[in-house]
Amino acid sequence: MTDATWTVPGRWARRGFPATGAAGLVLALTLSLLLARATGMPVALVPALGAAMLLAFLAVAAGGGLVTGRPRLVCLHGEAAAFAAAAGLLLLLHRPVLDGLGVVAPGVGLFLAAGRIGCLSAGCCHGRPARWGVRYGERHVAAGLPAEYAGVPLVPVAAVEAVALAGTAAVAALVTAGGGPGFGWYLGLHLVVRFWLEFLRGDEDRPVFGLLTEAQWTALAGTGVLVSTPAGPPAPVSAVLVVLLLAGVGVAARRAEATRLCRDGHLRRLAGLVRRAAAAPGDPVLIDEDRGLRLSASHRHYAFSRPGAPLGRAGLAALGRVVAATGPSGRPRRLTSPSGVHHVSIGVDR
C-alpha cells in the first residue's frame, strides 16, 4: 500500500466531538460578533441568535434519535433548522432577516467545519477505501467504525469538507462585511460542496433514493429554492451553482452502478473478504455472493463476475479501489476475460 496515509490517534475517538464542538462555538461567536460590528447590527443580538440556532440544531438531532433510536446529527437538516430559528427570531424582533442571516451564516460555517474535524477524529462520516487517506484503529471500532475498515486507508472526506466549509465561511464573511448577500453565498457554496463530496463518502447509514443520496437531493432542492428567491447570491453566481449541480447529476447517472454497489455494507463486506484472504496466503479461495455479484479472493488474486448483467466501468472501479486499499501491498493490475470475469492481481512490492 502507499505510504500517503495518516493514522488518527485512538484517544480522540470519543474526545474529538466535545473539544471541536466547543472550539467551533467560540470561533462562530467571535466571527459573528465581528461581522455585527462591521455591519451595524446590535452586538447583543448575536448571542441570542446563536442560542436559538444551537437549540434548534440539537432539537433536530434529538428528533432524529426518536426515529433511529440514537441521536442522529445530519449536517444539512440541523443547519436548515438553525437558520429557520434565526430567521424566526429576527422577524420577531423586527430586524432585517437577510442582513441578520448574513452575519451568522459565516459563523455557522466555522462551527460545522470544527464539527467535521470532530468527525475525522471519531471515524464517523468517513470516506471510502482508497490507496491513500486516514487509518483508524480498534478504539474507533469500539466507537462505531466498521471492524472491516480498521487499519484501511479511507478518503479523509471530513477533513476536505472542513477546509471547504472554512473557505466558504471566509468568502461569505467578506461579502457580508462589504454589504453583500453573504447568506446566499454561504449557503449556495456549501450545498454544492456537499453534493460533490457525497461521492467520496463511505459510511453506510445514508439513505439513497434513486441516483442520489438524501444529502444530494437536499442540496438540489435547497439550491433551487435559494436561487429563485431574493436570498440567493448574484445571478452569475447562481448560474454557476446550478451548472455545477447539474454536472453532478450527470456524474451520478454515470456512477449509478457504483452507487448501488456501495450501499448496504457491500463494500464493507468485500473489504472483509479481501483482508481475510490477504491474511491467510495458504488457505483456499474465499467465495462470497451478494446481490448477484460473485466474488472470489485468494492472497493476491481477486475475481468479480455478475452473470446476466456485466459489470460496468464505474462498478469495477469501485470494487478495484477496495481491493487496492485492503489487499496486500503492491501494484494492482486489472484484466477482463472474454467470459466476463474481471480479475485484479496485486504484484509484490520491490
Give a structural overview:
This protein has 350 residues and is α+β, with helices and mostly antiparallel strands. The protein folds into two domains: 5-254, no CATH class; 266-346, Streptococcus thermophilus LMG 18311 protein like (3-Layer(aba) Sandwich). Helix content is 58%, strand content 11%. The chain is built from twelve helices and nine strands. The protein has helices at 16-39, 45-68, 75-92, 97-122, 138-142, 157-177, 182-197, 214-227, 235-254, 256-261, 266-279, 313-326, and strands at 5-7, 129-135, 208-209, 212-213, 286-290, 293-297, 301-305, 332-336, 342-346. The strands form three sheets. Strands 5-6-7-9-8 form a five-stranded antiparallel sheet, covered by helices on one side. Helix 3 (75-92) packs antiparallel against helix 4 and helix 6 packs antiparallel against helix 7. The chain is elongated and about 70 Å long. The two termini are 12 Å apart. The model has no long low-confidence stretch (mean pLDDT 87).
